[in-house]
Amino acid sequence: MTPILETRGLVKRFGGVAAIDGVDFRLEPGELRCLIGPNGAGKSTFFKMLTAQYAPTAGQILLDGDDITDEEPSEISRRGVGIKNQVPDVLDGLSVRENIWIAARGRHDTAGADHAVSEILERLNLGPLADRVVGKLSHGHRQWVEFGMVLAINPRLALLDEPTAGMTAEETRRTAELIREMNRSMAIVVVEHDMQFVRTIAHRVTVFDQGRILAEDTMDRIQVHPEVLRIYLGTSGHA
Amino acid sequence: MHEIVIHLYQVMFAIGIFVLISLGLAVIFGMMRVINLAQGEFIMLGAYFCLFATQLGLDFWLAVLCAGLGVGLFGILVERLLIRFLYGRIMDTLLATWGLSLFMVGLVTSVFGPQEAGVDAKLGKVTFGAYSIAEYNLVLIAVAGALLALTFAIWRYTRFGLVARSVMQNPTMAAALGVNPRKYYMLTFGFGSALTGVAGAMLAPLVGNQPTMGSFYVAKAFVTVISGGPAPLTGTLYASTLFGATDGLISYRTTQVLGEIGVLLIAIVLLRMLPLGITGHSARRA
Amino acid sequence: MFARLSETQSVSLPPALWWTAVALALAAGLAIPSFTGLDVHLDLSIIFIFGILALSMGFMWGQVGMLSFGQTAFFGLGGYTYAVCSLNFGETTSAMLLAILLPAIFATVLGYFMIYGRISNIYFTVITMVVTIVLEKAIRATSDESFVIGDVWLRGQNGIAGLPDLQVPWDPATTLFVTEVYYLAFVLMMAVYVGYRMLLRHRFGRVLLGIRENERRINLLGYDTRRYKLAIFAISGAVAGLAGGLYAVWGNFVAPEMMNLNSAASVVINVIVGGKATLLGPLIGTGVVQWLTAWLGTAGVGQVNLVLGLVLIGFVMLFPQGILPMAAGLGREALEAARQLFRRRDLAAAALRKETNS
Ligand SMILES: Nc1ncnc2c1ncn2[C@@H]1O[C@H](COP(=O)(O)OP(=O)(O)OP(=O)(O)O)[C@@H](O)[C@H]1O
Ligand SMILES: [Mg+2]
């Protein structure tokens, strides 16, 4: 089966620093994968390369087997890739409704967009905030708005960078539910630091460290992987 | 043979002019990221300083120094009264300095009147085969080169340059190390203004000086600095060379306006290909 | 269909109310000539024409975040196009249409290089300014009698005088006189205002607002923002060209001053004084500033530049929002005070507070 997403030898250098240093990654259609790794491992950089926010220094990105390495962010989006960036990346001066409507209108006609917006507002419990200006909402609420925008473009592949940061325990639980629900119709990659959360949603986990894939396995095995323990717990292990 | 040399001279002269009018801006915009739309009026002010000083009987070269000093001080005043409130608000800086430029034109017009006035540098001509070249123009080329080298040296090798560079790159860090970033912003702005003042004075003998003369230079200066890219000094040198050569050759053969249009067209096409400017891909900043 | 979308801050009045206001303004504007003299018609027409120009800049700056100094260049180009074409053709309808079309094409070509080169917004501003300066210089340099387009000599500094009056398209024998020009300028200004406003209600305009807020995000949503920016630049170039054509009709005269830096500055000042956040702002600002400059002129202040410069600095430093939002802010406070007085509990607000606290 052709993987929905594949990278070959992906490299990104910022000056002398290699933030991504030769990543070969595969994701099967419909899969839900978690990406973990210490701060600065390159997870966000990886996502930004997949969506053409950064141009790769070397390597290839394939979507459904098509080379998309040199495509524009808008082209990649129209191929069905949606991203929620780590820092809430929303339209601060516009209302919640407008934010989601603009996202939806790219994929629907006006009536369809109006419809999609009310559906998403309800699904995310954003109804009461619909006409508030996004810039004045809390960090958590802005995360939800960005979630709404990803839902509104109805992607085939969703990239979610730390979706639960700044959320309450209850919101985190709802997010986990939402992600599982989304996974019925799309492949998802989630970057997370909260291991409990990772455990509740993921089948397979990929561990990034210093711009490389350190390990890739089920959560149970990852948890006892000596290299992973070493980078997370700082124990010298056997190395 | 003479033809070639005379062409070379034309081109060098045009490059020298480009370097002169954009060097101060390269310091202010290129290093501080402050857009000073009054750049043309700073040049005008330099020319008027020179005009005024020579009318008082001062030697031309002393007048040039006075212009540098005077416009430098004026720049510091502007930084204190205007610019420092607008750091980080690049669009607002642009608008405020535009207001400043209108204000300066209005002010100088009401003091000196709108008419043109000339300055005589009292230099002769050298003859070259069938051609004769104004000595002053040769001196101007040398001065432009010297100013560029001087700025480069100050920026690169003096303590002031070193500290100023680190302040521009990371003000918080510099402040943590006990440097007062405000002082360096102020001095750098003053330094850029002084360079512009000298440029204005150097241009004074070549043109009819009038309060609105700034608009003749502001376009060229910005095109040069923007096209130069993130390394302002080397960028200015490259861009001046490119545009000076274009302008020199076209103007010499046709008209000045066509020269300017040619420069603008090249700049626009250049920015389509290299949006970050000529030095956009080199890592080091200087 | 847009009723729900429009009740947000970017488009603030409810549509019914807004349409009523537009109708009232239209009625008032059309009524004015019947009880005023020709001099008033003349003075108001030029305000409307500059109002159109200010809208073309204010829309891009306030709604899209692109500050273009090139509007003055398009304005001048429109004027010169009308001049050259009407004198050559002996016919004004196509001249006026070309005065709109040519600046639009020029804006498209120029915009392509800038926008597709992805230069930053600040460089966009500077380059449009440089283009304006160079265009003005180019026109000024046409004093020589060899600069002729068709039968029309461009005349450099002196400008071209004696332009024909605008003919009624279906009846070329009839030409528009002062009062008719007033009607035309007024109706076109209202049309441009309503047009821009309608644009904001639709997908295209919404995406432009999104670009102002966060261009990268809009790209990530699948819109190629370069196309949108280029399109609005071309549209606004056409609108500025229209204003230029009308200016040529109004005074039967064009000159390089149409596109010099002072004209560019006065457009910016009109917009910033009125406030760029709304579309009404540029129109109000144009009225206020035109009135102010006329008053300065009669009050014998020799250096208008000096005053305009100070006004610009003052607004940027002290009132960057302009006078209209300030007035609106005062209005809102009054409204709020009235609410407090009646102690009316807004149920929705209470529910909201509950929601945010949980
Ligand atoms: N725009 C940039 N310029 C220079 N360096 C960068 C840039 N973006 C990221 N880096 C560097 O690349 C490395 C990887 O950063 P990245 O943000 O991808 O890490 P991360 O795994 O997402 O970390 P976190 O868990 O903290 O979000 C870091 O060393 C960072 O400093
Ligand atoms: Mg990250």
Automatic annotation (TrEMBL), chain A:
PROSITE patterns hit by this protein: ABC_TRANSPORTER_2
InterPro entries: AAA+_ATPase, ABC_AA/LPS_Transport, ABC_transporter-like_ATP-bd, P-loop_NTPase
Name under which the protein is recorded: Urea ABC transporter ATP-binding protein UrtD
SMART domains assigned: AAA (SM00382)
Organism name: Paralimibaculum aggregatum
An example molecular function term from Gene Ontology annotations: ATP binding
Residue ranges annotated for the ABC transporter domain, each copy included: 5-235
Coiled-coil annotated spans: none
Pfam families, A to Z: ABC_tran
Family matches, as CDD domains: ABC_Mj1267_LivG_branched (cd03219)
UniProt entry keywords in alphabetical sequence: ATP-binding, Nucleotide-binding, Transport
From TrEMBL, chain B:
Residues passing through the membrane, by range: 6-27, 34-54, 60-82, 94-113, 133-155, 184-207, 257-278
Database matches in Pfam families: BPD_transp_2 (PF02653)
Membrane topology summary: Multi-pass membrane protein
Coiled coil start-end: none
Record localization: Cell membrane
Taxonomic superkingdom: Bacteria
Keywords: Amino-acid transport, Cell membrane, Membrane, Transmembrane, Transmembrane helix, Transport
Family: Belongs to the binding-protein-dependent transport system permease family. LivHM subfamily.
Protein name: Urea ABC transporter permease subunit UrtB
Gene that encodes the chain: urtB_1
TrEMBL record, chain C:
Segments traversing the membrane: 12-32, 44-62, 69-89, 95-115, 181-199, 230-250, 292-319
UniProt-listed InterPro entries: ABC_transp_permease, LivM-like
Membrane topology category: Multi-pass membrane protein
Domain of life: Bacteria
Keyword vocabulary terms for this entry: Cell membrane, Membrane, Transmembrane, Transmembrane helix
Location of the protein in the cell: Cell membrane
Pfam families according to UniProt: BPD_transp_2
Name the UniProt record assigns to this protein: Branched-chain amino acid ABC transporter permease
Naturally occurring in which organism (per UniProt): Paralimibaculum aggregatum
